[in-house]
Design a protein that fits this description.
transferase, 8 strands, Lipoyl_synth, about 40% helix, TIM Barrel, about 325 residues, 8-stranded mixed β-sheet, rSAM, about 10% strand, cytoplasm, Elp3/MiaA/NifB-like_rSAM, alpha/beta
């Protein structure tokens, strides 16, 4: 049995650049990675707040499997800078194409929504905006500042683009806005970048996270990997070492899930016990916090994980 998330026509609208690619089968998921459809009242309430504020969430745009669980608890990862990405990564379900103009009122909308939802911890991510001179850095900073204004007790986690080929001042502007956690995902091992993340550069992304630590040593840094794309265990461990050399505090590892037939195929479904092994190895390498499971995503359980992250730093002194 094959289950598709998007119809062919919908996929073509969202990913026109992928339509000339050959189809890849989308196989049946193993039992350990299936989730129930969201139907709870908490989910509906969160959805209503998001829609009423005119906000975009990566939960919906990236077809996250955890949306039901997270939205039931009023945890939503807000996506800024529009809903259209200038890149075409082989794994991503976010719409690609030519983005529209920035919404100057978006920072205030996000700040007010954060306060209305009563969030203790909020995660802000975005599409890539290679069309903007600063990659959207100033907009990111304004969103952080608006959240600080409307919800001063809320801790802020950001998941940023790589600001590739942008002035160094762009990244510094975001760092100086003072997020509590600065996340940028490496996504996969260097060997697979050309096919999986062709618009990015592995060592640039690694250097970005290192720069955060140089400029703001007390800011937590975080990065994530997908597995099941054809990487080897040795390659994953080498990425862990690279991350530790860059001072990254928090590592997430989750199973890649293929959004449509036109996206990169799943090489294999990694079993839960293998994720447990990765977590043990990562902790031994010195990460303050590790989340590794088939359904782990960058912002999954982000509020609880942030509390553990702070506790782990305090315990190390």
């Amino acid at each position: 049995m094959v289950t598709l998330i998007d119809t062919a026509s919908a996929a073509a609208r969202r990913h026109p650049e992928k339509q000339k690619r050959p189809d890849s089968p989308v196989g049946r998921k193993p039992e350990w990675i299936r989730v129930k459809a969201p139907v709870s009242e908490g989910y509906k309430e969160t959805r209503q707040i998001v829609k009423s504020k005119g906000l975009v969430t990566v939960c919906e745009e990236a077809a996250c499997p955890n949306i039901g669980e997270c939205w039931e608890k009023k945890h939503a990862t807000m996506m800024i800078l529009g809903d259209t990405c200038t890149r075409a990564c082989a794994f991503c379900n976010v719409k690609t194409g030519l983005p529209g103009a920035l919404d100057a009122e978006e920072p205030d909308k996000v700040g007010r929504a954060t306060a209305e939802m009563g969030l203790n911890h909020v995660v802000i991510t975005s599409v890539d905006r290679d069309d903007l001179a600063d990659g959207g850095a100033d907009h990111f900073a304004k969103v952080i500042e608006a959240i600080r204004h409307h919800a001063p007790g809320t801790t802020i986690e950001i998941l940023t683009p790589d600001f590739l080929r942008k002035p160094s001042a762009a990244l510094d502007r975001v760092i100086d806005a003072g997020p509590d956690v600065f996340n940028h995902n490496l996504e996969t091992v260097p060997r697979l970048y050309l096919s999986i993340r062709p618009g990015a550069r592995y060592y640039h992304s690694l250097r970005l996270l290192e720069r955060v630590k140089e400029r703001a040593p007390r800011q937590f840094t975080k990065s994530g990997l997908m597995v099941g794309l054809g990487e080897t265990r040795e390659e994953v461990m080498q990425v862990m070492d690279d991350m530790r050399s860059a001072g990254i505090d928090f590592l997430t590892i989750g199973q890649y899930l293929q959004p449509t037939r036109k996206h990169a195929p799943v090489d294999r479904f990694v079993p839960p016990e293998e994720f447990a092994t990765y977590e043990s190895i990562a902790r031994a390498k010195g990460f303050l916090m590790v989340s590794a499971s088939p359904l782990t995503r960058s912002s999954y359980h982000a509020d609880a994980d942030f509390a553990q992250l702070k506790a782990a730093r305090a315990a190390r002194g």
